[in-house]
Each structure stands twice: as C-alpha cells, then as structure tokens.
Sequence to fold (283 residues):
Amino acid sequence: MLSYRHAFHAGNFADVLKHLIQVEILNYLHQKDKPFVYIDTHSGAGLYSLHSAEAEKNAEYMNGIGTLRKTPLAGTEDYLAVVDQVKPAFDRSNVKAETLYPGSPRIAQILLREQDRAQLYELHPTDFVQLQELMRGDRRIRVDKSDGYAGLISSMPPKERRALVLMDPPYEVKTDYDVVVSTLIKAHKRFPTGIYALWYPVVDRTRIDRLVQQLKDSGIPKIQMFELGLSADTDGRGMTSSGMIVINPPWTLMANMQKLLPTLAQTLAGAGGVWRCDEISGE
Fold:
C-alpha cells in the first residue's frame, strides 16, 4: 500500500518531536570529526508547503510548528534554526521559508558535513520524484526508489562505523509494527553500535505496548522512548500521541527531553498535553 502522504501531516506535533530528536542526535554526531552516514528508510518528499491543499485540509501544523514558532521554548533553538534553513540553495522562488516545513531528509541534508553522507529510501512514486529533485546535485546523498527495510539491512555495517538510522514508516498495515521490530533486531545484530531512531503513532496503545515488549525481549541494550501528545489515550479514531524509540541514544538525550517535553506538551496542547520519557532497557 502506498496511499500515505506526509504532506497532510507536515509540521504537526509528531513532526516536532521526531525532528527535535533527529537534530539533537545529528548534532551529537558532530562532536567527532569522523564521518557518519544518515539512513532514512521512509524518506517522503523531503519538503512540504504548509499552504498546500493537503496541509491546509486539517491544518495539523497549527498544533506543532505553527505554535512553536510563535512561542519558542528553551531547548528548541537548534531545531528551529534548522527549520528556518528549509529552502534549498537552488530555490530562487519567492516562497517564504515560514510557509515551508522540512522532512527528515532535508533536515539531515542541512546538518550533513562535507565528510558525511546519506542514504534515502522512498517507494511512493510522486514523493520519490520530489525527493530526487530536492537532493539533486548533492554528491553526499543517494536516493533509491526501493524498500527501506531491505536497504537498511543490506547496508549494515556501514563503512563509516558511525550512523543514525531513522525509521518512520506509515504503519498503513498492521504488520508494519512487527516488521519494524524484526528489521531493527537484524540491523542491530549486524551493527550494534549504530544509533537507531524509530517513530511510532499512538492510535492503539496495545500495539505500542506489544512493540515495546518485543524490543525488551530482543535483549538489545540501551533503549529509550519518548512520547508527546495532545491528549491522553482514547478508544476513538486518530492519533493522540506519537513517540520515538532510540537505540544507543546520546547520553544527553534523556535529561534534555525530561526537561523539555513537559513544557512542550503544555505549549502545544494546554492542560491536556501529555508526555513520556522512559528507559526500555539499560546497559
């Protein structure tokens, strides 16, 4: 199934959490001069207009980047600075940066150094063409129209021996929850020192509980999880929260998220906002 289009959700509260953590991890990797590789298994188009018909349909960005731009918080400075650099260098249009939002590939591209590289996977034909155009001319980056799960496994271990792997699947089918776990286990077995970040939606809490338990049972050490939501769990339809599971997280990540997420949840959702910072497995 290839019906999911991130353009409808760009810049929402889930993107804020995902990209805050992505930026923090990439900045952490900058602390050493040694090169790293960024691998994105489900890249999307890479750049989105917040004034498009898709984005305006539900205006989800208003409970995300729209609010945070108006009320910037301590701890979000690096993330907001990257978002402000959203326009590609070759874009000479009059479109203002504040009407655009970067997907994870564009954020990675902004933060890659000369010695780093990226491997991007996207199967949706329209999004692939847009992503390929966005990355054109950047020799650090390769874009493949192929299955990101298989691509990840085949690329492990990377030659750099340093990596951030971002997995952000659409979860269009129930089996995606099992596939992400099995893929992470296989990738970690081949490359246990890499940083792996998995995004997930909270639509049905039992699915997330099962996913977390599977990761606990895998024996993989050093796993943390972070959630941000607009409301508590509900039996109704739709995503109330989203989360990030990080394997081999930077040592600063837990403390920074514990400090930021309570304020961020309240800023984006008022008294109904929820957050979570947990350690799934230790050393």
